[in-house]
Amino acid sequence: MLPNKAPGPDSYTYRYYKAFLPTLKPFLCRLFNKVGNNTPFPAASLFTSITLIPKPGKDPEQVDNYSPISLLNTDIKLLAKILALHLDPLLPTLISPDQVGFIPGRQAYDNLRQAADLIWCAHTRRIPSLFLSLDAEKAFDRAEWPYLFGLLTHLGFPPAFVRVVGALYDSPSAQILIPGADRIPFGIWNGTRQGCSLSPALFALFLELLLHAIKLNPSVTGLNVGDAQYKLSAYADDVLLSLTNPGTSLPAVLKELENFSLLSSYKINVDKSEALPVALPTSDRLALTSLTSIKIVSSTITYLGIRLTSCPSDLYSSNYPTLIAKIKGELQCWGRYMISWIGRVNCIKMNVLPRLLYLFQALPAPLVPADIASLQTTIDQFVWNGKQHCVARATLYRPRTLGGLGLPSLFTYYYATQLAQIVAWHSEAGTRRWVDLENAFMMPHGLSRWMWLPRVHRPQSRTLCPTIVNFLRLWDKLAGKCDLATLPSPLTPIFGNKDFALGLDDGPIWSFLPSDVCRLYHLYPNGQLMDFKQVAWDSGHSRFSFLHSHQLRSFATQQHVKAAATAKLTYFERLCRGGTYPRGLISSLYRALTSLLDWRELSYIRAWEADIGETLDSEDWIDIWDMSCSVSICTSLQEQATKTVIRWYVTPTQLARYDPNVPDVCWRLYGNRGTYYHM
């Protein structure tokens, strides 16, 4: 836990607890164990300070436009964190894939990509639909505790766990921190506290019952794609419903919301909720206005900060130009300030890049290259403060720990985010709803197999979904160019492969092999050809299976098939084979893409080695780069070290080459030539 987090009313920080942990640990352990045995916390421990954070873009004169953040005492936060660490691994099994907020392994873009795909589906198939974005009124603050604790018991949590959670909400009190105002304590009787590590998980469980009721209600119908129906998605208190037959579905949803409100005090903020009709006749739109006071918009709704449009082709123009123009204006303003070279790079990495990355992940729309190139030029000009560039772009964009400056390359980050979602295509069925949806668009060909086929062998795509088309086009562009895969790849599927004619049809060969043998590398476990005769016996089939075994052996022993099946997997192929979305995936992919240039190709490395008359190996250079990054916490000293390593400074010998009248001796008049090596 970070040591400098704001403390609660007792003013003890994490730094204090870490410094005196050997002394405090036994007392904290006894305290937490007693709480599990029905011993309440002291009232002072449950006292909280509440600070009000204004919501961006909202009227600060309105009380509703502030988020109350609870500053809990550190001992309470420690216990809440312990409970959250125990609860978080269970959430993916307790919470359906439709809910992604604060669930390990799930991200906001999961819902946004699903929403964009569903809008495209409704628009192209002309399915009258209503996309309803619901905003909950003070969602975290309205949760009723009897309902919440009853839900935990119903879900089968151990009584001791429920008692400890209950102890955190046993008659707490709070004070509001307002400059110049008296701090008047008051009691709290409902809600989960924003600022508590346990609150997000509790709210996800709190909301799951409502979502489950809506999904089970036969009067609420969603979009049917393949064998599944898509009715809703949620991120914390932001719920998006995708409804068909709105005249029937909408009243049923409102009834479910009313019933849930009576049980839990959950309430929808009608003024901030919106409904977007897609392919809905005008008469039906007018009829909906009599069913609800929720605003029905004509072209766009905002969900999780993204403007979703009724026309899929407007998705890019409704989101990117506004953000790009805003960033350019900010960079122009920041350029007036005296900011160091590395400080300017850090401004881009910490302020500009996160906003763009969110769009790169959330919007499945192809980029307009001219827009991103223009923004990259503006960023480069900001970093160089309008002066001439002195470092090659390949060095500028390379990570600092690999000999570069670490300036974000927007196109490369875009490629990394798209490749990360291609990795997500390989998730198990049922873990990501948008993956199941896009696979349904491609039926009977699964995306995670179809993409690995050579382009000339691919069956005709069954969908024109712009998301899928854009990703496959990007994959074909980058696969060979960026060494993401060997062609053909060990991940090439056996079935649907034109090299193996027997696997093109749904014949008995499909049932002959185990279900986990579906790619070329499966034919050579541990580098050895699998025993097809043993597989035939294990399959329990008739002697006809021996014919299949000989046919498979003939296919597997072809020279080009064996070479592909036994080839070493690339970094990206290993990610796809794993079928998981590891933490830091985008950063890892970006690092790999920006490091394609061999480190020996960096021009300053050759220059340094020529100066010292010695060839340094990669470990030497890694040590040099690490030391230049960690020479000091002062950015000015870091900048000086980095500029020296990449030979940014102009030396007397360089000036002498430009002007013969300028001497090439050291400026300090030591009589030596002023080379980098001398400096």
TrEMBL record:
Classification via InterPro entries: DNA/RNA_pol_sf, RT_dom
Residue ranges of domain Reverse transcriptase in the record: 34-308
Superkingdom of origin: Eukaryota
Pfam families for the chain: RVT_1
Protein name in UniProt: Reverse transcriptase domain-containing protein
Source species of the chain: Leptobrachium leishanense
